[in-house]
Write a structure and sequence with these properties.
This protein is of the alpha/beta class and 312 residues long. The chain has 12 helices and 9 strands. The strands form 2 sheets. Strands 2-1-3-4-5 form a 5-stranded parallel beta sheet, with helices on both faces. The protein has a 4-stranded antiparallel beta sheet with strand order 7-8-6-9, sandwiched between helices. The radius of gyration is 20 Å and the shape is globular.
């Protein structure tokens, strides 16, 4: 696997060079700044397959660099693993929204970093299969929206702050890392569009795609300021993760989502005599019994969605 490591700390680069060599990653290049990293990307004969990127660098932060990397052909889906000494949930959220796939904290637990790298190799196989799926069914609305989640990323710091839309793999990684750090201070919401078949039949293509993409974008925009990120599961189902629940997070987040849906209905559906019928469920970390892993939240919400779809 071809890896690019970007960090302004020479000692970190030397440590990572020794570690990566010890686990048989030999095709590795190193950059001490964002500018140097972009030069290596431009000059590479084949794209890097994984990028390890420090968040806190002078001149240009890792978060600011991600959208620039994504603009290069062949780098739309390349996994970017953030390296950070910060447990600042705002920076972590913004990194995922900008296009990060995972993160590890300094000082490194090398087993964790090795696990992330093996996860990248698995991801590469998954992406190859997904590309084939898209080619086989380019008319699938779910495929269109999932590609939108992966590709429609912010390109400026202000847009990163406003948006919260990520792909499913990054969402799951973010949840796994952040829930272990914040424990009960996370909130996970599931949203299902109950009347998507009716909307699809009335709007027809390509307007159904436009409706889903617009809805995803507006939901993400409203969730972003609450340190929330959003992903699309398919079949009209969304997951929303908030790192900053208030004393009454369900009311706050549900109000935001309701406002987002009303906004899209006014633009796209009401002229057709339609409105979005939806259901939502929410679980907070502090509601999980003691001794139960935080990952239970993700399992419980996804399972509830699956059962709801089967009952329709």
């Amino acid at each position: 696997m071809k890896i690019l490591v970007v960090d302004d700390d020479i000692l970190i680069l030397e440590i990572l060079e020794l570690f990566l060599s010890s686990i048989d990653y030999e095709n590795v290049q190193f950059a001490k700044s964002g500018e140097e990293a972009l030069q290596l990307i431009e000059g590479a004969s084949t794209p890097f397959e994984c990028i390890l990127l420090d968040i806190n660098m002078p001149v240009q932060t890792g978060i600011e660099l991600i959208p620039m990397i994504r603009q290069y052909s062949g780098y739309e889906f390349v996994p970017i693993i953030m390296l950070t000494a910060q447990h600042d949930k705002k920076n972590i959220a913004e990194a995922f929204v900008a296009g990060a796939w995972d993160y590890v904290t300094k000082p490194f637990e090398f087993f964790e970093l090795e696990t992330r790298l093996y996860g990248v190799e698995t991801r590469m196989v998954e992406l190859a299969r997904r590309s084939q799926d898209v080619a086989e069914d380019a008319s699938n609305g779910d495929v269109t929206l999932k590609r939108f989640c992966a590709l429609h990323r912010p390109v400026t710091p202000s847009q990163i702050t406003e948006s919260g839309l990520v792909g499913l793999g990054a969402f799951e990684n973010c949840f796994a890392r952040i829930s272990s750090t914040l424990h009960g201070n996370v909130s996970l919401m599931a949203l299902r569009l109950n009347n998507l078949p009716e909307v699809s039949q009335t709007l027809q293509e390509p307007y159904t795609h436009q409706y889903l993409v617009k809805l995803a974008s507006v939901i993400a925009t409203h969730a972003g300021p609450r340190q929330g990120i959003v992903t699309y599961l398919g079949k009209g189902a969304f997951l929303i993760l908030s790192f900053a629940p208030t004393r009454r997070p369900s009311t706050t987040l549900k109000d935001a989502i309701g406002t987002a849906i009303d906004e899209v209905d006014a633009q796209l559906l009401r002229t057709e005599g339609l409105s979005t019928d939806y259901s939502s469920w929410q679980i907070h970390g502090n509601e999980v019994p003691e001794g139960v892993e935080p990952s239970y939240l993700l399992y419980a919400v996804k399972n509830h969605l699956d059962q709801s779809v089967r009952l329709q």
